[in-house]
Amino acid sequence: MLLMKLIGFLLGYVSFSASSGFPERFINLCRLNKIPLNNLRCSGSVLTAQTDCNSYKRIRSVAKKSGMKVRITAKHGLYFFLRKHSRRFGLIVGACLCLFCVVFLSTRIWRIEVIGNDRVASEEITSVFASLGVHEGARSASINATATEAAALRKLPEISWININLSGCTAVIEVRETVKRPLSEQGTSPSNLVAARDGLILILRPFNGTAEAAVGSPVLKGDLLISGIEENKDLTADFCKAEGYVVAQTKRSSELSMKQSFKAMKKTEAKASSTLNFLFFDIPLGRRINGGFCEKTSLFIDGKVLPFGISRTVGNTFSEFTCTLSDADALLLASLRFSDARLEEFRGKQINESRIKTSIKNGSVAVSGEFDCIENIGTDSPMQIENSLSEGIASIR
Amino acid sequence: MKNRKRRTKNGGETIIESIGQNLDLPQDSFSGYAHIELCGNKEAMIEGCLGILEYSDCSVAINTGKLTVRFNGSDLTITSMQDSLTVIKGIITCIDFSN
């Protein structure tokens, strides 16, 4: 029945009413003349029914024979709609364009999703896939998933497994990253643990090897803390990688100086331009700007990204000028730079006491600091072992 | 052949009908009777309709050749009428068969 309705809608049908005369004769004559009648309803002497366009042309003679007067009450279907709007070319062109867009866009990739990555950036993965032909706007049918996966694996050494799933217009790239070997397993060649800085040992915990220093003893840079030689009960020696945790109180000092007058860049002009993005097409809306900061905004419908969007590029022009700071500003800037620089240096260290001095002399600002820290000073120092086959003795350099 | 077909046995059955009955063949395939399908009391599908004898809101009489079938009820509508197939929809309360 649904199919009949669909055919009726596409070909068009008319609703008509027939009154006076002989309804039964009219129905029988319609049947004999092979005129299909649908939704035939008789209320009193008025008969209402529906038939297709071609059959209605033949219904006049039948109505005349049965003495009925036929009148169209409504016209339905696509045929009449198109006929009514046949002079509106824009409507027809728009409908054709819409159909083309639907057919064309359904065969393309609109969005690329990367899942399962942690260390490797999604942008890196998508750029590799873009170079292999999997990008926004690419034809879904032309993607050879197996070959692309293999080629991408060769280009991404930190990825151990890749799979592409095409779900509608979205390409989902699922990845598994390689697992790095733990630090403790990296290199098993014999080594000593020596002091990286001067200091006073507070904690000494050897995990592997023999402790050569004692808690409370001062050490200089390069002093042996944990030896990689382990002596056995039979007075023979084994070589191993010395591991341990040596915390010492150390002193650190650093200095930073800058001039009150220096050359800097100043923003003189800012230009902005917009670009309309549609799949892989970029349509500039104005003068194109090379470089600069680009912000892309995509169209969303129900949480799904559509292949339409606008990119706004802002390009700045800079010029060089000489900047002269006041004493207070220069001190503030120097202090900020000093603290920024120390952030990375003191990561993982505890500062017990700090003494910071600032001074201004001859147009130059200086910031210096001394810090009492508590930190792990143990660092690996590899041993060179030479095997003497003739004597069977190992000598250590 | 025509005379042989019209020849009847006791009870008004033709020879072909009696053969069909003995062989358990469907009656509507050769007996000339209409095939009527009912869907509850809401819809009736008549195959082998030769004409409409009476049509109103509460009664539809159909000529099926050997029998006249009358559907009584309310709000009766012939939803489709093509060749020999007729579909009647509405609330059917009674079906009468007459020669």
Topology:
The complex is a heterodimer of chains A (397) and B (99).
Chain A: H1 2-11, E1 13-19, H2 23-32, E2 37-43, E3 46-52, H3 53-66, E4 69-76, H4 78-84, H5 89-105, E5 111-115, H6 122-131, H7 145-155, E6 159-167, E7 170-177, E8 191-195, E9 199-208, E10 210-211, E11 218-219, E12 224-227, E13 229-231, E14 237-239, E15 243-259, E16 261-278, E17 281-285, E18 293-301, E19 304-324, H8 327-345, E20 350-361, E21 364-376, E22 378-382, E23 385-388, E24 393-396
Parallel strand pairs in A: 5-7
Antiparallel strand pairs in A: 1-3, 1-4, 2-3, 6-7, 8-12, 8-22, 9-11, 9-15, 10-12, 13-14, 15-21, 16-17, 16-19, 18-19, 20-21, 23-24
Helix pairs in contact in A: 2-3
Chain B: H1 2-6, H2 15-22, E1 35-39, E2 43-47, E3 51-55, E4 59-63, E5 68-82, E6 85-98
Antiparallel strand pairs in B: 1-2, 2-6, 3-4, 4-5, 5-6
Please give a structural write-up.
- The complex is a heterodimer of chains A (397) and B (99).
- With 397 residues, chain A is α+β, with helices and mostly antiparallel strands.
- Chain A has helices at residues 2-11, 23-32, 53-66, 78-84, 89-105, 122-131, 145-155, 327-345; strands at 13-19, 37-43, 46-52, 69-76, 111-115, 159-167, 170-177, 191-195, 199-208, 210-211, 218-219, 224-227, 229-231, 237-239, 243-259, 261-278, 281-285, 293-301, 304-324, 350-361, 364-376, 378-382, 385-388, 393-396.
- Among the domains of chain A are: 2-82, 2-Layer Sandwich (Alpha-Beta Plaits); 111-177, Ubiquitin-like (UB roll) (Roll), CATH 3.10.20.310; 262-322, no CATH class.
- In chain A, a hairpin with a 2-residue loop joins strand 20 (350-361) and strand 21.
- Chain A is elongated.
- With 99 residues, chain B is mainly beta.
- Chain B folds into two domains: 1-31, no CATH class; 34-99, Immunoglobulin-like (Sandwich).
- Chain B has helices spanning 2-6, 15-22; strands at residues 35-39, 43-47, 51-55, 59-63, 68-82, 85-98.
- The longest helix of chain B is centred in the first third of the chain and has 8 residues, at 15-22.
- Chain B starts with a helix and ends with a strand.
- The model of chain B is unreliable at 1-5 (pLDDT under 50).
- Chains A and B meet through helix 2 and strand 2 of A and strand 3 and strand 5 of B.
